[in-house]
Amino acid sequence: MFWLADGEAWGVHLLRGEANMRERVAAQMAAYWESLRAGRPAPQRSEIDPRQIEGLLPYTLVLEWRPDGPVRIRLAGAHVTGLMGMELRGMPLESILEPEARATLAAEVAELFARPALLDADLLSEGRGRLPMRARMALFPLTSDRGEMTRALGCIAAEGVVGLPPRRFTIERLRLRPVGTLAAPMPHAAPAGLAEEASAFVPAPAARHLRLVKG
Predict the structure, then answer these.
(1) Is the separation of the CB atoms in 184 and 42 below 8 Å?
(2) The domain that contains 58 carries what CATH number?
(3) Which residue range forms the structural domain that includes residue 8?
(4) How many domains in the chain?
(5) Nearest CA to 150 among 77, 63, 70, 69?
(6) Is-contact 105 120, C-beta < 8 A?
(7) In-domain check, residue 193
(8) Considering only CA atoms, which of 57, 87, 55, 58 is closest in space to residue 74?
(9) pLDDT tens for each residue of the chain, 215 residues long
């Protein structure tokens, strides 16, 4: 089982067939992250292999935290960029929320990196003449190749009619849970995965989505 949601492990909902799409995406991402963690506080960013989460790529986020600024989106899947109707690379994570909810998310995400911890949030987008849309966001800490807790793997899955983007959300419920750790050595080498060189945040001139390229 994975970490708890609504008083039960996500795995219980999946076995019962009760999970909706939002829960399934979050549970599958949690299982993948846990399989990479292997008892450590967090897996390395470069250990992520897109081929192993092909079905989750449209919902996937990769985040970067720096002490001199907000947590920023490094990569975003097509489902996430479709909700916002824009390229998200280099933008603060809080930009997906309505202004009144941003400070709450920023404070909790800072705790995710400091503890480390897991973040799970139920989101709601409504108003402006559009039908309500609910989303689930889950964030999982990662370490950089230098061993620093400055990265995160995440997902956002929404159900409903997008309508006219951007679809920004308020927070219905947010849970932050410390990561349980076991003594386990860090790997001496990591596969290429989603590794990337550190660089300044410069918005891309054209939309770029996280996707699996087969060759």
Answers:
(1) no
(2) 3.30.450.20
(3) 4-178
(4) 1
(5) 63
(6) no
(7) no
(8) 87
(9) 344 333 344 443 444 444 589 999 999 999 999 999 988 999 999 999 999 999 999 999 999 998 888 999 999 999 999 999 999 999 999 999 999 999 999 999 999 999 999 999 999 998 777 889 999 999 999 998 888 999 999 999 999 888 888 999 999 999 999 987 433 333 333 334 454 444 444 444 444 445 554 54
